[in-house]
Amino acid sequence: MTNDPIRLEEIHRKATLNYEGGCREAAALVPGEDIAFLASLGVSAQVLLDYAEDFVRSGEPDCATFVRVVEIRRDYFRSVQKGLPSPEVVPESALPLRKDEWEGIPWLPRITRKATCFLQGTLCNEVMYGCSGDRGFLQKHKLSLPGFLETIRDSGRDSQKILQYVRGA
Question: b/e string for 23-60 if b means 16 or more Cβ within 10 A?
Answer without folding.
Answer: beebeebbeeebbebbeebbbbbbbbbbbbbbbeeeee
